[in-house]
């Protein structure tokens, strides 16, 4: 056991040292290469750096299995725990956070009631901390604040108004939302949102977003879908099935199929928020008719709209045309044909083509 423990400690120290060196090297390369870079490139690197600094991540995992000692998984766990204690790699990891931040996090997660589960001795310290947060939440939160936090999304301004009645300052609320966004508890883009409608929206349950998107982007074959999706597709009428085929084979999504069938269980304001979010994520783009009016490419009518969903295009583009270099006519010598796709819209969003 002493031999195993010494090997574990040596391995942890070596792994941590290697990751730290790589981290420092990344910073060095970034610093040296930015001298002559354009401002656009600087801005992109700054955004990536912000993600790296504020989001927990694993830079390198180099642990052997050690099957003869059967402690490979345990070694990996200790290695990650050790790296998590390095503030140079994971800034803020394990740091103290205001109780008001944790109060909002608890309300968003709907953990405002006690569980009643008995804890083992190793869990008592953690539960003591949770008890402090629970007591603070019970003492300072209001039923209205709980109601807002229990919604799948909420206006940040309305949330701030109610949180101010619980002793929080308005700027503190927005700092808390930024912190919870960085930790993945909520989605709140604020002023950085590309779509103006999203700048005041807090999505309180990221899983709710994933559950909604799966109705639009999923496997094409029914045999590859879960029972819920097969039942949903099975109850579509003839017109609904034609619209679904247009989505699965042509990447065209009729808004009536989306709102009345795929998202029929959601409220109208929830649907609107998700459409804006998927547009901001570049998961779908609204099509327009002549003059910029709404137009459905599936039904060929202007009484409702449709969307282009790139992820559902059936025919993939050969990698030779998109990577590693830009396509040129010379690349197409000897080819029998070139795949072409046409988009009808009044304008293109920023970086639309490069994002496809």
What does this structure look like?
By secondary structure, this protein is mainly α. Helix content is 49%, strand content 4%. The chain has 15 helices and five strands. The chain has helices at residues 2-33, 39-54, 72-84, 99-108, 124-140, 143-149, 156-164, 170-182, 206-213, 227-234, 238-250, 255-262, 268-280, 319-322, 352-355; strands spanning 153-155, 201-203, 252-254, 285-286, 306-308. Strands 3-5-4 form a three-stranded antiparallel beta sheet. Strands 1-2 form a two-stranded antiparallel ribbon. Helix 1 (2-33) packs across helix 3. The longest helix is centred in the N-terminal third of the chain and has 32 residues, at 2-33. It is globular and about 65 Å long. The relative contact order is 0.06. The model is unreliable at 56-70, 112-122 and 317-327 (pLDDT under 50).
Kindly list the characteristics that best describe this protein.
two-stranded antiparallel sheet, 15 helices, 5 strands, 356 residues, mainly alpha, 3-stranded antiparallel β-sheet
Fraction in helix? 40-55%
Query: Strand sequence of the main sheet, in spatial order?
Result: 3-5-4
Number of separate strands: 5
**Alpha carbon gyration radius:** 25 Å
Share in β-strands: under 5%
Characterize the biggest β-sheet: 3 strands, antiparallel
Amino- and carboxy-terminal Cα gap: 55 Å
Topology:
Elements: H1 2-33, H2 39-54, H3 72-84, H4 99-108, H5 124-140, H6 143-149, E1 153-155, H7 156-164, H8 170-182, E2 201-203, H9 206-213, H10 227-234, H11 238-250, E3 252-254, H12 255-262, H13 268-280, E4 285-286, E5 306-308, H14 319-322, H15 352-355
Antiparallel strand pairs: 1-2, 3-5, 4-5
Helix pairs in contact: 1-3, 4-5, 4-8, 6-7
